[in-house]
Amino acid sequence: MRRFLFFAVVCGLWLAPELSAQQRLPERFGGWSASQAPVQAAPDVASKQPAEAAAVLSEAGMVQVIRRGYANGAHALTLTLYQMRDSSAALAAFGYLRAPEMVPSDLGLAAAVSRDRAVILSGSAVV
Q: What is the rounded distance in angstroms from the CA atom of residue 66 to the CA atom of residue 80?
């Protein structure tokens, strides 16, 4: 029994990153439903070169980037989750991802929005 329990715990720890990645972007929220499966992605930051964004976010402590598309009738949106090493790394990423034209928002404790983008800090993640 103890051997089985040990094996189950080790398997759970081994699979946890993959499971948590898929569970962090929900199947649905509000009137929005997932139109795609969550996928690992490269950082995609508006007005930044891809190589620069990857380097800066990696230096800040980026663990992974997950992207998922959603639909609500004829409307579509894409959520990109930047999973960071810890909350300090997430705060650094939030500052980098926030564009100068964005204004504070009440979407979260630390959130900013523009006409076509939003950046929200939540623990060790930035969406």
A: 6
pLDDT at 1: 40
Task: Provide the sign of the torsion angle of the four alpha carbons 79, 84, 90, 93, taken in this order.
Answer: negative
The residue extents of the domains of the chain are 2-126
Are 99 and 73 in contact, with CB atoms under 8 Å apart?
no
Residues in the chain: 127
Mean pLDDT (the chain) is: 82
Q: Tokens 């969550």 correspond to what residue?
A: 38
Mapping DSSP onto H, E and C, the string for 32-78 reads EEECCCCEECCCCCCCCCHHHHHHHHHHHCEEEEEEEEEEECCEEEE
Q: Find the distance separating the first CA and the last CA of the chain, reported in whole Å.
A: 42
User: For residues 93 and 65, what is the distance between their CA atoms, to the nearest angstrom?
Assistant: 12
The token duo for 25 is 């972007």
Q: In terms of Cα–Cα distance, which of 83, 11, 5 is closest to 40?
A: 83
Say if CB 90 and CB 123 are below 8 A apart. yes
